């Protein structure tokens, strides 16, 4: 049962990040302690947004749209110019579509749908 709770939490986190990205409030989710680097220097807002942008590109729903590791290294290490020209990310994998949030199980009961539309798990007592 615990694994299902963890999966639900991860899906919820992905959904929250995606919603904040689309509404332009993504920096509200950033821990304030991440606003400074190891040397105590203030990290620029553009650097934080660039890292989040690259992270969202890496978890896109369609694997073919995800960048290769070598491209990610260039995006992160190349400075602000390398993230300025990035394509906008598409919806992350494992974010549930509103219509997929619940499905009707065989007995007419409502059951949680699979986040990746591959499987549907019905919990049954032993």
Automatic annotation (TrEMBL):
Q: Where is this region: Disordered?
A: 82-126
Task: Write down the superkingdom of origin.
Answer: Eukaryota
- Composition bias (Polar residues) maps to 116-126
Q: What is this protein called?
A: Os11g0549000 protein
Source species: Oryza sativa subsp. japonica
Stretches of Low complexity bias are at: 101-115
PANTHER family reported in the protein's UniProt record? CYSTEINE-RICH RECEPTOR-LIKE PROTEIN KINASE 10, PROMASTIGOTE SURFACE ANTIGEN PROTEIN PSA
């Amino acid at each position: 049962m615990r694994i299902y709770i963890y999966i639900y939490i991860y899906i919820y986190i992905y959904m929250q990040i995606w919603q904040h990205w689309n509404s332009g409030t993504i920096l509200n989710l950033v821990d304030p302690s991440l606003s400074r680097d190891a040397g105590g220097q203030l990290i620029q807002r553009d650097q934080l947004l660039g890292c989040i942008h690259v992270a969202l590109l890496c978890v896109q729903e369609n694997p073919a749209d995800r960048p290769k590791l070598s491209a990610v290294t260039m995006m992160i290490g190349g400075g602000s110019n390398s993230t300025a020209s990035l394509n906008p990310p598409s919806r992350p994998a494992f974010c549930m579509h509103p219509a997929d949030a619940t499905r009707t199980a065989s007995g007419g009961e409502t059951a949680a749908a699979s986040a990746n539309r591959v499987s549907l798990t019905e919990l049954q007592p032993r």
